[in-house]
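To assess whether the prediction recovers the assembly geometry, we first specified each molecular entity separately, as shown.
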Amino acid sequence: MNDMKSMPDNTLNSPERRRFIGTATAAAGVALIPGVMLFEVAHGRPEDQAVSSAVRWGMLIDATRCATGCDDCVSACSTENGWTPVAESQHPRQAPQWIRKLELQDPLTQKETNLPMLCQHCGDAPCIDVCPTGASFRRADGIVLVNRHTCIGCRYCMMACPYKARSLVHEPLNDTQKPDVPRGVGCVEACTFCVQKLDRGDGTTACAEACTAAGNDAILFGDMNDPDSAIAKRLRELPTKEVRADLNLDLSVRYHGI
Amino acid sequence: MASMTFREVEGSSLKYWMLFGGTGLFVLFGFLSYLYMHHHGHVVTGMDNQIVWGLPHVFAVFLIVAASGALNVASIASVFNKPMYKPLAPLSAILALALLLGGLLVLVLDLGRSDRLIVAMTHFNFMSMFTWNVFLYTGFFVLVGIYLWTMLDRNVKAYSKAAGTAAFIWRLTLTTGTGSLFGFLIARQLYGTAMLAPMFIIMSFAYGLAIYLMVLVAAYAWTGRPLGDAVMMRLKTLLAVFVAAVLYFVVVYHLTNLYFAKMGSAETFILRDGGILTTLFWVAQIAIGCVIPLVILLTGLGRQRSWIMIASALVILGGIAQMYVTIIGAQAYPLDLFPGMTVKSSFYDGVIHEYSPTMAEFFLGLGGVAIALLATIFGVKVLRLLPVNLDDATIAKLEH
Amino acid sequence: MKRLLALGAAILTAAALAWAGSDDPAKTSGVPKPVITKAIKGEHCVEPNDFMRRNHMKVLLHQRDETVLDGIRTKKYSLKECINCHASEKTGSVAASKDDFCVSCHSYASVKIDCFDCHSTKPQGSMAMHPLNAETAHYAHKLAAQAHSKVSAEEMAGIAQ
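The predicted structure of the complete assembly is given in tokenized form:
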């Protein structure tokens, strides 16, 4: 992270540069194994310390770079978080989808736009307001999550979410969950910004990694509060929009090119 | 005021026990449906990630709304001091409690994690309309329970008016809360309006009174107690007023929506292009639920008791249809994330969502209705809720 | 409701045991005792056995809220670490068969476990099974990525800086 900051700004946003940072971080991690220093290097938060609002995780999606027909972000999310891809599900209408590709078209101009849609991690989230038990909550670092220990499966949040970001788990999962990603029948779930990855210091999400790996670089993830982070810099340069900005929900996901 | 004798229904006849058993059977079916849904998860229902609230919610919300309305007759007696309604009040109160019980059970048994009900009772988020409803329901049970007690126990009769007034204010709040469950949602086009709260209140008046009338007539006919036309004529006129008011609110709601361009396509979906939902709206909700009952109640037909019963039954059916259109219709129309754009995705964005309820959901909903009836049938047997005589002469004495 | 049922069942079981015990001591042998298999790795648990037998649910509950709400993922009382050590060699799980660590005791005590409706009962991959690597197992994918990607001399120099 230190050497990233020392780099000249003009190189920061090129795909090559970012891929290099990814490799470098991984290599640094390997070089330091084993050691507590890992957490310091990758994230700066000791594991016994609570997350703080000094960080606000966010995502910048560049719809102009999102490729038609590519759903690598969706498969990566499914693999990382253990939900069954909808194509393999026996009950597609009831299958959870944490992230999905939208294909938009302007009927007048025929202009087509591709983009991934996921939980927008609102700063002022309707799902949190309506949740009767407080199971929907926003973590200090801006991630909106469902506490499955208190979720009663009432689905009021699904009624309230303007982005259709949430799903109910309709059938028992029979121990197919990932150890890092608890999910359960009767509870509501949604994108977690790969909270398990962030907490272990990866600093990015499965979808963003997959998008970069596919060479599209349409998803940039990072700490929006850190003025030196790649995402903060990019957000300063690029015109971006919130989806349904009229609702004024203070979203953590911004789109360019919509 | 002339004294009025209340007596329990004897409830020893074969007919009583058959009614009891028949209703009980539906309660059992409802419970079995719950076990089935709970064991397999919501995968065995027609509900999915598009239609997240289905038939159980249609029944539950209908029953909860009707519960508040069933208290009408009692409120007219205590709050508005109409002596004629006094003898009708205890049945009104027990019916309100029974209907709320039925509705809440359906709501609770449909939860994804119904085994965690205790969590809902111990963790509260006061930003949530749902949380407020939990308190409104509990308060309703307590207040109507106390009100019923003041009507049944001579020692506390003096507090009847105070208790009745408290229950009246509470049930207006309760139905405001129920309407606001939907009114407070920004995401769906057809919700998110303050209209829904007063509309639900007026709907509760109509549904509650229709149910009350049917239960009253059935109870008096089956027990052979006299029930005069004086009572029936008053109540049927009241029902006509309530049904007309529901129609008025529905018209204003849709006209307002039609005027706003952004609501246009959602409105044309309900009013013209929605297939089964459009049919339910025009045929069941408007024609069967409002227009036909109004014609019956306001013409000469309304003087015959059997026609009043038909009108009440139609109001109830129309009410369930109205709930269906309100709850399912608003979800069937897709969310408009990118206004003006056509949308495609694997998650059914941009398409009308289909919903076909399964038998399990249907019987769970019916189970709630059956619980409400069973509680009422049991209530009139063990408590002195029904006057032995409601003929015209007895009623006339009350008025003087 | 289930908790109440579980409580009721526990009381009934206890009553039955007491009755059986007072009446005919031989009968108690009819109740299958829980199978407590020694953890497949490590010398001892994070706390003395007596403490854990009585209080594991308390420490887990405390840890659960810290993890979910605050992102604190310390290992000492983490359910994941319980599973890492206690998963059975046969089934690779703490709750797949009736003799597995969590299940055998819980069914003896008639207390429903709510954890595994949502949590996996198995450790994460083969690397996590090894105590030395449990902490670093999540870097496995990075190691793998490293193996596949071509790292140029310049990039290695960059890391060295």
